[in-house]
Amino acid sequence: MNALWTQTQHILERSLNPGIFQVWIKPLQAAVDGRNLTLTAPNEFVASWVRERLASQVVEAAAQVMGESPSLRVVVASSSGAVCAAGEILSVPAPATAPARMIRPRPAETEARAAEQVFRFSFDQFVVGPSNALAYEASLGLCRESLQGDQLFISAGPGLGKTHLTQAMGQKLSAPEKGKRSRVVYVTAEEFSSRLILALKMREMERFKTRFRDNVDILILEDVHFFQGKPKLQDELLNTISALQTRGCRVVMTSSFLPKELSGVDNQLVSRLCAGFLATIEAPDLQTRRNILESKARVHQVMLPGEVAELLAGRIRTDIRQLESCLNNLVLKARILGRGISLDMAWDVLKNYNLDSPGICLDQIVEYVCSTYDLNNEQLVSKSRKRQLVLARNTAFFLARKHTELSLQAIGERFNRRHSTVVKGITTVERHLSLQTPIGRQLEQTIDRLSQ
Fold first, then answer.
1. Of 301, 293, 357, which Cα lies nearest the Cα of 326?
2. Greater pLDDT, 171 or 48
3. Burial class (CB in 10 A: 0-12, 13-18, 19+), 21
């Protein structure tokens, strides 16, 4: 580790609360270039905390080692270890002639920083079709305040566009209008929970409440199914929603499940989640998938032959992110080769993707899962809670949800389980896949092989 940063850490360890040092300072990596000090945090949550609350202390400690106040930059390391500069904030260094003072940002400064969220998607980029028209119109209506009520709940499977819509709402709502800018807070349920837990540990609940209840006009909360089985977190979420709506604020929430499908959630919270407008997004039809490809091709400024669009849209049917990624790779390959996009080239690129096989039924899924995990049907539906059996059932739940039109209750009945168990199992698989855990990578291979 850089010797300068090691000495700076020793100073900070003596001057800061031990808990703050262990949680926020110790995980940081550092690089020094002249007067520039760059700290790399393991994730955006840690980076934001250091920028907002500890920047001045870090500058002061580093100045004692360097002999002058450095220019501080806090960045985030990607999962591959590379530095991601998205959202980085340069701290203002203290003059070299005077010692840096320990300055805690004023609430207005903190909120201004928090408002600097980057929204990547807009409504103009969203391709509307029968499967998503209701969610699209409801999202626009909430922005224009023409939607009946002040709450919107969007339910959709992964890769179907719910994040695109929430990002588009964030972009539109945070844009200045008539000289006034709405205060938009956009967080995942997991980040909301992490901030709450840390606020409790640091005894800063009033600051947390100010952040999420008072200094906000619109709250956009992704993946609320994360709150399943977490009663204390559910209480705070319920109180936050109630406080916001008392003030006339708007609330947007998303989930892979409808409120009634959630398990381990208090009835009062379920009722609150159902109180606003509920919109679902289904898998897009063939024409919508083709429209999406043609729209993206125009963005890339490439000619996409109709037969290629037909092939891609016909083979990738349930995940829009994967469809767009396939097109992006196809465009890049064509440019590298200096050739136009062709059908042969498309087939070659498709080999790298999880293709949707037509006509996969639940019996085929059960047979495949039993073969993969070396089980028989009786073991799969048994009451056993052995780890391998639970993993096999969760895989079957996920595949049934992905490849069939069966309801959660119908899937549960096939395995002698309640629908709440199915929800929990699917959520567990999605979490492993998202975090790319060792189990997640194993599951990804298992899921891919079925489609092949």
1. 293
2. 171
3. middle
